[in-house]
Specification:
150 residues, alpha+beta, Ribosomal Protein L9, domain 1, Ribosomal Protein L9, domain 2, 2 domains, 34% helix
Length: 150
């Protein structure tokens, strides 16, 4: 006998969060319910998921708007880092993502260092383009200049 359940999380085999699916009663009671992967599809649970879905979509829209605003700031704000270097434009050490985040913070732009993507460590003076993934839909390039400390 099959029963209807609402998935409480994304599962590659079953479906996406909030989706109503039919599964066998034994599978639901022995696996899905104990592991909090699903809830019984009652009218109150369906209403609860609809409210939660609306709240989640509003939060996502707000995050997207914040990411767009940050992207505009980053596009219009080139960053210059002054570092110690030796002969031949080689740096003592390397410019890290934390150095870039600190420079952005001085410009009034908050960013998590895990969102920065460097192709390779910056170990020479020069101009670079650093990709920042602010949101799954929004990626922006930061103009970075690494200059010799005077």
């Amino acid at each position: 006998m099959d029963i209807q359940v609402i998935l409480t999380g994304n599962d590659p085999k079953l479906g996406k969060r909030g989706q109503v699916i039919k599964v066998s009663q034994g599978y639901a009671q022995n696996f899905l319910f104990p592991h909090n992967k699903a809830k019984l599809a009652t009218s109150s649970n369906l209403k609860e998921f609809e409210i939660e879905k609306e709240k989640h979509s509003k939060e996502e829209a707000q995050k997207l708007a914040e990411a767009k605003a940050s992207a505009e700031k980053i596009k219009n704000t080139p960053i210059k880092l002054e570092v110690s270097s030796g002969g031949g434009d080689k740096l003592f050490g390397a410019v890290t993502t934390q150095d870039i985040v600190d420079a952005l913070a001085k410009q009034g732009i908050a960013c998590d260092r895990k969102k920065l993507h460097l192709e390779e460590p910056i170990k020479r003076l020069g101009h670079y383009q650093v990709e920042i993934k602010l949101h799954p839909e929004i990626h922006v390039k930061l103009a970075l200049e690494v200059a010799k400390k005077s």
